[in-house]
Amino acid sequence: MKEAHHKADEKTYKFGMVIDLDKCTGCGACMVACMAENNLPFRKDNSDRLRSNLWMRVYKISNGRSFPDLDISFIPRPCQHCEGHGHHAATPCVSVCPATATDYSHETGIVSQVYTRCFGCRYCMAACPYHVRVFNWWDPTWPKGMSKYLNPDVSVRMRGVVEKCSFCYHRYQRAKNKAYAEERRELHEDEYQTACTQACPAGAITFGDLKNPEHKVYKLKKSPYAFRLLEKLGTNPKIYYVSTRDWVRKAGDVYLGKEGKDVTHA
Amino acid sequence: MSTTEEKEQAVAENEQAKGGDEQAAEVAPVKPGTWRFLIPIAAFALGFMSHFSLGWVILPPILYAEKQQPIDFSHKLHVDEVGDCEGCHYFREDGSFSGIPELENCAECHEEAMGEDPEEAKLITEYIEPGKEIPWLIYARQPQCVFFSHAAHVKMGEMDCAICHGPIGDSDHVRPYQYNRLTKYSRDIWGWNIAGLSKNGWDYLKQADNSGEIKIEHAARMKMDDCAECHMEKRGTHDACFVCHK
Questions:
Q1: What is the pLDDT of residues A78-95, one digit of tens each?
Q2: pLDDT digits (tens, 9 = 90+) for B62-109
Q3: What is the span of the domain harbouring residue A173?
Q4: Is residue A263 domain-resident?
Q5: Which residues in chain B are closer than 8 Å to A157, comparing Cβ atoms?
Q6: In this predicted complex, what is the ipTM?
C-alpha cells in the first residue's frame, strides 16, 4: 500500500525554496506575512523567544569579528520539508511520530501536520534538527474582534499540539481547486506561491517546483553559492540558501574550527 | 406448620439425593451439574445482549441530538421552478463552490408571498423582511481541519451530487439534522452506521440505479474512511494527509 502512494501517471511536484541571503535585509516581513496567513496567535511581547510561536523565523548570525571586519547575515528559516534519501520515513520528524500526525507527501514533497491527530508528545520537535516545530502551550487568543479576520483556509490549532510551516499548503489546494473548476490539472508557477515569498520586499525568496526546469528555483538552486542547512545530516531539505560569502555558507553547516575544510558542496 | 416435619423431610431428601448420586455413578458415568457449562454461556449471552442493546439502541439517542431546519424547503418544487441545481448551487469564478444560496436568491422570487404556505409566510416575515440570512444546518459540514473540493469531484470526477449527499435534490421536505452532542459534528459525517455494517453512500446509488429507485433516506456517510475508500477505488491512491486536511 505504501508504494501505491501516487499513480505513476499522476503529476508530482517537489516544491522548494531558494533564499538569497545576500538580498535578505532581516526586515521580518516574511514572519509577519506568515503569521497573518497561517492564523498564528501572538502575545503582547512576541520577542520572547521561549513563548512566541513562529513558523518562519529569521535568525541573525555574525562572523564574530570586530568592527571593520564585522559582517552579519540573516537566515529566514521556514520548515525545511526534508525528503531524506530513499525511504520516506527518513524525514526526521515523520520517522518518530507515534500518531502519524505528520507525513511526507510524494505528490508535493510537503511534510504535513494534522493538528487534530497530534497529541503533543513532541518527539518530532526533538527530532527536527532545524527547530522548525513549535508547541502550543496555550489555546490561541487574538485581540478582540481580530478573530473575524482569521484565514478560513487554515485551521486554528488548539493547546497541546505541535505545528509548523506547511508551505502555505492551503494555497496549493486553492490553486488546484481553481484549476479543476477550469477543467485542467497543471498549475502555473505563479498560481501557487507562499505568503512569505510574496511578502519579501527584497525578492530574496523564490518558491517553485525544484524538479521543473521551467521554474526559477530550478536554476537558482544550481548556483555554485547554493547550500542547505546542516546538509551533512543527510536530511535532504528543500530549502536552498544562496550566499556569495564564504563564512555564511560554512555557518550553514555549523562548521567548528577547522572542521569541514576539505568538504565540498554539491 | 411444624418445623421438625420440614427438617425431617429435608434430611430425607438429602439422603435420597446422595443415594441417587451413588446409583447414578453406578449406572452411567454422567455426573450431575454437567449442565453447568451453560452458566457461562448464558451469562455471556445475557451480557452480550445487554451491552449490544446498550450500544445500538440506548446510546445513540443519548449521543445524538436533533434539530429542525429553520424552514421546510422543498427541493422538488424548486428544482422544477429554477430548472437545475446550478441556479442555486454553482461554482464561483475562483473555483469555490457557492454552497447553500443566500437570502438574496430566495428574495428574487419571494419578495411577496406567492402561495398560502405557512412556511413561505415564515420565510418572508422572519427572514426576507428583516433581511436576516437563514441559518441553514449543513448535513455535510466537515470539521474545520478538513479540506474538500467540489470542483475536483463534480467537474473533474463528473460525479453526481447524490453519490455523496444522497437524494436531497429530489426531496419534498427537509429531514431533521442530527448532531453529536459531544463533538457537535453532524451525524452524516460520523455515524449513521456502526462499524461500516451497511455499505457506503455511493453503493446505495448503485443499488438505486439497478432498481430504478432510490431507497435510502439518509444521506451518505462522509467519514474519513468513506472518502479514503472511494479514493482508493477510483484514484488508486493512498493519499497523503494533506490532500484532505488543512
A1: 999 999 876 545 799 999
A2: 888 889 999 999 999 999 988 889 999 999 988 899 999 999 999 999
A3: 15-252
A4: no
A5: none
A6: 0.84
Which of B95, B144, B147 has the CB atom closest to A180's CB atom?
Answer: B95
The pLDDT of residue B196 is 44
Take residue A30 and report the three cell numbers written for it. Answer: 516574511
* Chains A–B, number of C-beta pairs less than 8 Å apart: 84
- Label the pairing between strands A239-242 and A15-20: parallel
Burial of B88: CB neighbours in 10 Å, binned 0-12, 13-18, 19+:
middle
Largest CA distance in chain B: 100
CA A29 to chain CA centroid, Å, is 15
d(CA B186, CA B41): 39
Query: Does A208 fall in a domain?
Result: yes
Read off the pTM.
0.86
Residues of A with CB under 8 A from a CB of B: 1-2, 4-7, 10, 100, 103-108, 110, 112, 114-117, 153-156, 166, 169-170, 173-174, 176-183, 185
Q: Is residue A1 part of a domain?
A: no
Delimit the domains of chain B by residue range: 3-58, 68-135, 137-246
- Which stretches of chain B drop beneath a pLDDT of 50? 1-2, 11-12, 15, 17-25, 194-209, 214, 216-219
Sheet strands side by side (includes A239-242):
A205-209, A15-20, A239-242, A226-227
Dmax of chain A from CA atoms?
60
3-class SS of residue A226: strand
Sequential DSSP letters for B80-109: HHH-SGGGTS-B-TTS-B--SPPHHHHHHH
pLDDT at res. B197? 45
pLDDT value for A88: 47
B158 touches chain A (CB under 8 A): no
